[in-house]
Design brief:
Shape: globular
Helix content: 25-40%
Largest sheet: 8 strands, mixed
Structural class: alpha/beta
Distance between the termini: 42 Å
Radius of gyration: 20 Å
Number of domains: 2
CATH architecture of the largest domain: 3-Layer(aba) Sandwich
CATH superfamily of the largest domain: Alpha/Beta hydrolase fold, catalytic domain
Number of strands: 10
Length: 385
């Protein structure tokens, strides 16, 4: 099946290949800097709704600097196979500890016992962070992009004589629905049975749905002027754009349709021209969105929180860096997370950068500056010992 697909439209410095037997997957991988052996390795992990293809603009610069750059379609995405696309399928393979195992298996398959840095964007950011937290001996530095990483969930503490209070359902969703303008949080919408069909069968088509979605979360949408929220409350969350806190009765395609850019705006778009968007659209039309949506379901269900409590109290102690667009609400969508990453989760954060002129898709919107910041971080973090 994979061999019959047309090749991705890639720069000449990047090749597409498949690597078998990676934690039950056949992984589709984009690779740059493969011409010579012995190079230090960088692992790049994409988010939603993206693919390894989202790194195409920074991979050549990293390879030119002397790195072997590996970017997979992660579990649930693109041309990687071996995952279950059914809503009623097993969620466990999509939990963070198994996504770390996917990353570990991939770099091991390439013959690396240590990776110079793991770099993750959007939902790839917490995967990269968990890689560095769980296996700092392998992932010797980490860059988190567009999604701050909070500390691991805490274990119930000091409960021997004061029993822990029973867990209660988060009231924020009821409160959002009860607002004068009823709302819902996108991550819980993404966890519904209907979300995949809503997007796969978007009334405007997958291509135009993705065009509007990418536009809405980019610096091109001039109303993206983010600022820190004060709390995880319905009143504060309602300040977020509708791509994060949606109108209660709308699907995501309906949410983004009103901000569809004009033909002139699309023609003027240099960071995601239609010829490149077509690759995303063809892949998601073929696979659907459920593989990526399973990641959200793992988080909203709380089913795997107990496992993550195994690392309660642990910090990321390898050199770390955060990069996001200055016009990206993702930095602030959970109150306090941006600050907690810098003060609690990471003990060796040596860079925290918000790039003007970029929204959520920072490595696509501003690739020269992202490449520059990544290389400066890698230089400051120093070579592997």
């Amino acid at each position: 099946m994979a061999e019959s697909l047309p090749p991705p439209p890639l720069p000449t410095a990047i090749r597409s290949r498949y690597v078998e037997n990676i934690n039950g997957l056949t992984m589709h991988v984009l690779e740059a800097g493969f011409e010579t052996s012995g190079r230090p390795c960088l692992l790049l992990l994409h988010g939603f709704p993206e693919l390894a293809y989202s790194w195409r603009k920074v991979m050549p610069a990293l390879a030119e600097a002397g790195y072997h750059v590996i970017a997979p379609d992660q579990r649930g995405y693109g041309r990687t196979t071996g995952w279950d696309a059914r809503y009623d399928g097993d969620l466990a393979p999509f939990r963070f500890s198994n996504l770390v195992r996917d990353a570990l298996g991939l770099v091991s398959a390439f013959g690396y016992a240590q990776v110079e840095a793991v770099i993750g964007h959007d939902f790839g950011s917490p995967v990269a962070a968990w890689c560095a937290l769980m296996r700092p001996d392998v992932f010797r530095a980490v860059v988190m992009m567009s999604a701050p990483f909070g500390p691991p969930p805490s274990l119930p503490f000091n409960t021997a004589n004061k029993p822990a209070k029973p867990a209660v359902e988060d009231p924020v969703h009821r409160d959002l629905a009860a607002l004068p303008r009823p709302r819902k949080h996108y991550q819980w919408y993404y966890s519904t049975r209907e979300a995949d069909g809503d997007m796969t069968r978007a009334p405007q088509g997958v291509h135009d749905f993705l065009r509007a979605y990418y536009h809405h979360k980019s610096a091109d949408w001039t109303d993206n002027k983010p600022y820190p929220l004060k709390a995880w409350s319905a009143e504060e969350l309602a300040k977020l754009p509708t791509y994060y806190v949606m109108d209660l009765d709308q699907t995501m395609p309906e949410t983004v349709a009103p901000v569809m850019p004009s033909r002139a705006e699309i023609a003027a778009n240099t960071w995601l021209p239609d010829s490149e968007l077509a690759y995303y659209a063809s892949e998601y039309s073929r696979t659907g969105f459920q593989g990526g949506l399973q990641w959200y379901r793992c988080g909203t269900s709380g089913a795997f929180t107990a496992e993550l409590q195994t690392w309660s109290g642990r910090t990321i102690d390898v050199p770390s860096c955060f990069i996001a667009g200055q016009q990206d609400w993702g930095t602030y969508q959970r109150a306090g997370a941006f600050e907690a990453m810098q003060t609690k989760a990471c003990t060796r954060m040596i860079g925290c950068h918000l790039i003007d002129g970029a929204g959520h898709w920072v490595q696509q919107e501003q690739p020269p500056e992202v490449s520059r910041l990544l290389l400066a971080f890698l230089h400051e973090a120093g070579p592997a010992q």
